[in-house]
Every structure is written in structure tokens, then in C-alpha cells.
Write a structure and sequence with these properties.
This protein is 73% helix and 0% strand. The chain has helices at 3-12, 14-25, 29-32, 35-53, 58-62, 64-71, 77-80, 87-104, 107-119, 123-138, 143-162, 165-173, 179-206, 215-227, 236-261, 267-270, 276-294, 300-318, 342-361, 363-370, 379-393, 399-416, 421-431, 443-449, 456-478, 481-485, 496-516. Residues 267-274, 336-342 and 497-517 have low confidence and may be disordered. It is a multi-pass membrane protein. Keywords: Ion transport, Membrane, Sodium, Sodium transport, Transmembrane, Transmembrane helix, Transport. InterPro entries: SLC13A/DASS.
């Protein structure tokens, strides 16, 4: 058989092969690792393979603990199933419902155009306007929806500024054109790329600012409740106070880098100049104004959603702010079941079930014992290494799958090195949203790349520096205002009970080994 043809057939059947071979290849773990820990590790790695390769839909993989944990004696079903209906899941659901209402009535479109009217049409400021709008919308909507909505607006404005894209590409290649014309066309192409690449990056950054902005933030809250039930430091308000300044800092640095790399930071683009460019900028401004006028006056539905959105945000902030008594004390805790987007809810539930299994089976402790050599690394350096590792890993896997897989390990690592668990867990959670280097890293990257105007090398070159900036920003945040907000310089009492139990298990294991030896 032709090797090329065989390779194509093999590639087309890759998902079926992974589904079949992964369980078989992981079987030795059941015999090498201690019994209960080995069984849990088997399920965790199987889910990790399926999540990273998407051999099964993410939500289907998330349901594996429901059947495998009780069947393999890792966790009874009465402990597994409640993990799919935690209050954290319904907090995420409330954000999805609000986002759906905003998208249904086009309120996000009105917000975007209003911001662009304010910042003006000089490319440097327009890129900033695009990034501010994308990041703000992504705090409440999905970053995928934000990118899909903003890209057509960007393309319309760019066509007003620079004309038809195909003509621009031809001018770049045409050697018969004067040198100045060709240089100008190449410059305009660079600015065009800067516009397109800034939107998905800003959407990914913006999602980190609120708990409901991206799934990993809620997974952090859910796993904290599972591992450290007495930890109540992370809520909507406290996360926003920590993450919003971090988001702003990273956004500004990212804008400077993108504008510098793609020619936006240039005096002729920032300062008014009476030349042919002024006519193009006036035309672009007219496009924005015209699109805004087409929306007409604010409809009743838009006004209602705006009002409800403000109420929603205020209620999230005041539910349980800790420094004063929140309104949650007036309601008894209970569960709710409605018509829900099950794929998202089940995915979160699968992560929480996996974390619970790691905790109950002792797998987290077993992994922690093998991470003891990392105790020699200074905590501040460990924060940088953890953020960098997670940011690199999430380039190839979804951020949700990444944080589900690694957060239990990172929590146990913090306990082993006697560091406040939040000092390691928060950077990991934030870092898994910093996937900028590849088109496949996130759906927003894929949408921007699918426009056909970006090359992989554009994303790698820009994203590499964006990753470095993100890692440095997280490190700065954790060692300045985050340190004082969450008392990260001390080992908290809420982590001691788990530490004590872990130490007991470890001591018991060592004693047993000594007795048998």
C-alpha cells in the first residue's frame, strides 16, 4: 500500500484508535502504582488523553467518573454525582443565560460601536479600542462569541482605512509599483494583521477578570471547596479586585507590543496629519457612525437587559463579600435544576468529580510525595515555572481540560512545600487562559486565523512575547497586591486539616514499608 495513502487513512481513524488503544496502554498503571491510587490515576490519565485529543466530545469524557469511579471502587456514586450539581456550576450557568440575552438583542454590538466612536479611528487608538471592547465583553460573554462578533467590525473599518484587502496584497507583491507605494501597502498589511490578532488575544485576557468570564476560574473555586472546604477567600468580588488590575496591566502591555510589532505605534497613526490618510480615516469614522445609526434608538429589550445586567453584576459582588454580611444569608442553601447547557455543566462537573476522586483515593497525596524535590525551588520562582508550564501546555489542550488535570497536583505540591495553596493555584488558573501562540490553542485564535490573513508564524512571533508578558504580569500580581489580599505569605489554617491528614497517610505508608521491610 502507498505509504502516503496509508498515513491518510490512519489519520482519519485517529480518534477511533485513541479510543481503543488508550485504555489498553494505560493498563500497566493498575499493577505498578498502589491499588486505589493506581485505579484513580488510570481514570485521570484516560480522561486527560480523551480531553486533550478530543477523541470523545468533552462533555462525554466528563461523564466517565460517573461509571468508572464506582465500578473500580474509587468513589461511591453518592459522592460522585453531587459533583455535577455544585453551586459553582449554576453560577456559570447564570453567566451563560445573561450572555445569551445580551447576544440575542445585540447589546454587545452597540457597546462595541460606542467604544470605537469614542477612541477614534487612528490605527493605534483603534487597536486599543478593539482590545478594550473585546476584553470587556469577554468578561461576561464567551471569548469565542466576542471574537466572532468583533472581527467583522474590524474588517469593515480596515477596508474603509486601507481599501480592498486583495488589492492591498497585490500592491505588496507588484514589483512594477513605485517603492514607496509597495512599502505603504506592506505597512498597511502589517497594521491589518495587528487588528486581527489583537481581538482574540484581548478576548482571552478579558475572560480572566471575572469568575464567570472563563470556565477555569470557576473550576478553581469548585476545587477549592472540595480540597479546602474552610477556604472562603475566593468569591466574585475578591477575584475581581485581584484579577481586574492584572487584566488591565496585561492588556496595556499587550497593546503596546502588538501596536509596536505591527506598526500601530507610529506618529503618523497617532497624530493628525493632513494628507490622503485623513480622507481614509474620515471614511472609517463614517462607517462606524453609520453602523451605530443603523442600530436605531435603544430598544425596550436592550434597556431591560442593561438594567438586569447591572443588577446581576451588583448581586454577584454583594452576595458574600466577606468584609460585610452579604445577601446570601437570607436564603437557605439548596440545589436548582432547570433546562441547562449540559455540555458545559457536565464538563465542569467532570472536573470536580475527578478532583474528588484524586482526593478520596489518595492519588493527590501519592503524587505529592513524588514532588518533594521541588521543595528546594523558591516559591516565587515556582510561581513563574507553574504559570509558564500551564501556559505552554494549554497551547495544545483546552484551558478547561488543562486546569482540571493539573490543579489537584498543584494543590498537593503547595501543601508538600508548605506554601499557601492559593499562591500556586491562582497563577495556574490564570495562566491556562494565556494561549496565544497557535491557531489551535483557543477557538478565538482559530476564528482569527480562519480569516486567511494571518500566518502561523505571525501568531507564534506575537504570542511568544505575549506569553512572557502574561507570566511576568501574573508573577507581579501574586507578589504585590495578591500577596496582601489573600495573605499568601502565611500558611493558612484552612489548609492545615488536609495537610495533617496527608501527613498521617504518608507516615502510615512509611511505617508499613518499614514493618514489611
Amino acid at each position: 500500500m502507498d505509504p502516503a495513502k496509508f498515513s491518510r487513512k490512519l489519520w482519519s481513524a485517529r480518534k477511533q484508535l485513541i479510543l481503543t488503544l488508550a485504555p489498553l496502554l494505560l493498563l500497566p498503571l493498575l499493577f505498578v502504582v498502589p491499588p486505589k491510587e493506581g485505579r484513580c490515576l488510570y481514570v485521570v490519565l484516560l480522561m486527560a488523553v480523551y480531553w486533550c485529543t478530543e477523541a470523545l466530545p468533552l462533555a462525554v469524557t466528563a461523564m466517565l467518573p460517573v461509571c468508572l469511579f464506582p465500578t473500580m471502587g474509587i468513589l461511591p456514586s453518592k459522592k460522585v454525582c453531587p459533583q455535577y450539581f455544585l453551586e459553582t456550576n449554576f453560577l456559570f450557568l447564570s453567566g451563560l443565560v445573561m450572555a445569551s440575552a445580551i447576544e440575542e438583542w445585540g447589546l454587545h454590538h452597540r457597546i462595541a460601536l460606542k467604544v470605537l466612536k469614542i477612541v477614534g479611528v487612528k490605527p493605534a487608538w483603534l487597536i486599543l479600542g478593539m482590545m478594550i471592547t473585546s476584553s470587556f465583553l469577554s468578561m461576561w460573554l464567551s471569548n469565542t462569541a466576542t471574537t466572532a462578533m468583533m472581527l467583522p467590525i474590524a474588517n469593515a473599518i480596515l477596508e474603509s482605512l486601507f481599501g480592498n484587502l486583495e488589492t492591498l496584497k497585490e500592491n505588496c507583491k507588484d514589483k512594477s509599483d513605485p517603492e514607496e507605494v509597495r512599502r505603504e501597502a506592506e505597512y498597511q498589511m502589517k497594521v491589518w494583521k495587528g487588528f486581527l490578532i489583537s481581538i482574540p488575544y484581548a478576548a482571552s485576557i478579558g475572560g480572566t477578570a471575572t469568575l464567570t468570564g472563563t470556565a477555569p476560574n470557576l473550576i478553581l473555586v469548585g476545587q477549592l471547596k472540595s480540597y479546602f472546604p474552610e477556604c472562603d477567600l475566593i468569591n466574585f468580588g475578591s477575584w475581581f479586585v485581584f484579577a481586574f488590575p492584572l487584566m488591565l496591566l496585561f492588556l496595556i502591555l499587550g497593546w503596546i507590543w502588538i501596536a509596536f510589532l505591527y506598526g500601530g505605534l507610529n506618529t503618523r497613526l497617532c497624530i493628525s496629519k493632513h494628507d490622503e490618510r485623513a480622507a481614509a480615516e474620515a471614511k472609517a469614522k463614517a462607517v462606524i457612525d453609520e453602523d451605530y445609526k443603523k442600530l436605531g434608538p435603544i430598544k425596550f429589550a436592550e434597556g431591560s437587559i442593561t438594567f438586569l445586567f447591572i443588577i446581576f453584576a451588583v448581586l454577584l459582588f454583594t452576595r458574600d463579600p466577606k468584609f460585610v454580611t452579604g445577601w446570601s444569608v437570607f436564603f437557605t442553601k439548596g440545589k436548582a435544576q432547570e433546562s441547562v447547557p449540559w455540555n458545559i455543566i457536565l464538563l465542569l462537573g467532570g472536573g470536580f468529580a475527578m478532583a474528588k476522586g484524586c482526593e478520596e483515593s489518595g492519588l493527590a497525596v501519592w503524587i505529592g510525595n513524588h514532588l518533594q524535590p521541588l521543595a528546594q525551588v523558591p516559591p516565587a520562582v515556582a510561581v513563574i515555572l507553574i504559570t509558564a508550564f500551564i501556559a505552554c501546555f494549554t497551547e495544545f489542550a483546552s484551558n478547561t481540560a488543562t486546569i482540571i488535570i493539573f490543579l489537584p497536583v498543584i494543590a498537593e505540591l503547595a501543601i508538600r512545600v508548605n506554601v499557601n495553596p492559593l499562591y500556586f493555584m491562582i497563577p495556574a488558573t490564570t495562566g491556562c487562559s494565556y494561549a496565544f501562540m497557535l491557531p489551535v490553542s483557543t477557538p478565538p485564535n482559530s476564528i482569527a486565523f480562519a480569516s486567511g490573513h494571518l500566518m502561523v508564524k505571525d501568531m507564534v512571533k506575537t504570542g511568544f512575547v505575549m506569553n512572557i508578558l502574561g507570566i511576568l504580569c501574573v508573577s507581579l500580581a501574586m507578589n504585590t497586591w495578591g500577596l496582601h489580599m489573600f495573605n499568601l505569605h502565611i500558611y493558612p489554617d484552612w489548609a492545615r486539616p488536609l495537610n495533617a491528614s496527608s501527613a498521617t497517610v504518608a507516615t502510615h505508608a512509611i511505617t508499613t514499608m518499614n514493618m514489611t521491610g
